[in-house]
Amino acid sequence: MNNFLPFALPLIGEDEITEVVDTLRSGWLTTGKKTVQFENDFAEFVGASHALAVNSATSGLHLALEAVGVGAGDKVITTTYTFTATAEVIRYLGADPILIDIEPDTFNMNPEKLRQAIAENDNIKAIMPVHFAGQSCDMDEILAIAKEHDLKVIEDAAHALPTTWKGTTIGSISDITVYSFYVTKTIATGEGGMITTENKEYRDRMKTMRLHGINRDVFDRYTSDKPSWFYEVVEPGYKYNMTDVAASIGIHQLKQANAFQQRREWIAQQFNEAFADLPMTTPYVARPDDTHAWHLYVLQLDLGKMTVNRDKFIELMAQENIGTSVHFIPLHLQPYWRDRYNYQPEDYPVALDVFNRAMSLPIYPKMTDDDVQNVIKAVKKVSKEVLK
């Protein structure tokens, strides 16, 4: 293989391009009718009552926490095995994240560790499960625990479109769910995200806080039958709205979400079959009858059978022109979180072990069949070279 295969690339078609051009020619580029259409389409797609488009999943998580009343001195339980955005938004509000370890097979939040964290901490306000790689957490168990202790549940579903839990699409199960449309995700708007909820009060609060705490959208003020310059600032809000340019891409990406997932799943199946006899563990699927978004395909290397560590394996893959990544560097190993809360690497043994052996392969619908075979050939070649 002569050309380097990047770890991730979006699949953008002519429909997205045409819609963006239409938006540019319309003269209305910020939050407007295209954003509203995207919100309505998304709510219908996941079966939620309300959807709010935002400029990132990070801002969506921040708005969600604020809406449920998280503030200074509160605590929010989440997992150490996630991107820093999941925890940083908790700090935005002066609250503290309580990190817990993960299940060794799904890499999702461990409900037993969740119960333990609740027993050991006061002032817990909410739980933030992360649907790692596109496979749902055990939502029945998490919601039961939350109900038992009167806690709110905000799902970090950045990986989880169109994931299901026992046949129900993620997005209408808990108090609030937040998605990402970053360039590597199932559907991409470049930057962007979506919040869904069944609670109108939460929806109204997040809508107000999404745009400076103003009680009227700018699109409503300038395009209604009776346009008005008057508005009221009711809270010191944020600047988290999605633009119509981004929504124009999202409208057509969403139409392909199921097809994109099916292509990712097909690639995952090719990898599973090809790597079954290699010194590595392929991703575990807890519920085969549910939809796994396959945002990530994470191998766990059997380092005991290899002459190299994970980092060197990645270097060798790059020499074969295959881009890879690692998901994730656990939060408790990152300098800010480690130093602020005095974490030690061994505090979360499962996450630490997974991290040391984990390697994410390219898996996205823009990959050709030849690309898939080139990844397989590279993994097999490198595995053979480093086998003890």
Description:
It is a single chain. This protein is an alpha/beta fold and 388 residues long. It folds into 2 domains: 244 residues, Type I PLP-dependent aspartate aminotransferase-like (Major domain) (Aspartate Aminotransferase, domain 2); 129 residues, Aspartate Aminotransferase, domain 1, CATH 3.90.1150. 41% of the residues lie in helices and 13% in strands. The chain is built from 14 helices and 12 strands. The strands form 3 sheets. The protein has a 7-stranded mixed β-sheet, with helices on both faces. Helix 2 runs parallel beside helix 9, helix 3 packs across helix 4 and helix 3 crosses helix 7. It is globular, with a radius of gyration of 21 Å. The chain starts with 13 loop residues before the first helix and ends with a helix.
- The CATH homologous superfamily of the largest domain is termed Type I PLP-dependent aspartate aminotransferase-like (Major domain)
Please state the overall shape, judged from the principal axes of the Cα atoms.
globular
The fold-level CATH name of the largest domain is: Aspartate Aminotransferase, domain 2
CATH architecture of the largest domain: 3-Layer(aba) Sandwich
Q: Strand-and-helix sequence, N→C?
A: HHEHEHEHEHEEEEEHHHHEEHHHEH
Strand order of the largest sheet: 1-9-8-5-4-2-3
How many strand segments?
Answer: 12
Strand content: 5-15%
Helix proportion: 40-55%
> What's the domain count?
2
Count up the helices.
Answer: 14
Low-pLDDT residue spans? none
What's the multimeric state? single chain
Query: Helix/strand/pairing class, anyone?
Result: alpha/beta
Radius of gyration: 21 Å
Please outline the major beta sheet: 7 strands, mixed
- Look at the structure and give the mean pLDDT: 96
The N- and C-terminal alpha carbons lie at a distance of 26 Å
The CATH class of the largest domain turns out to be: Alpha Beta
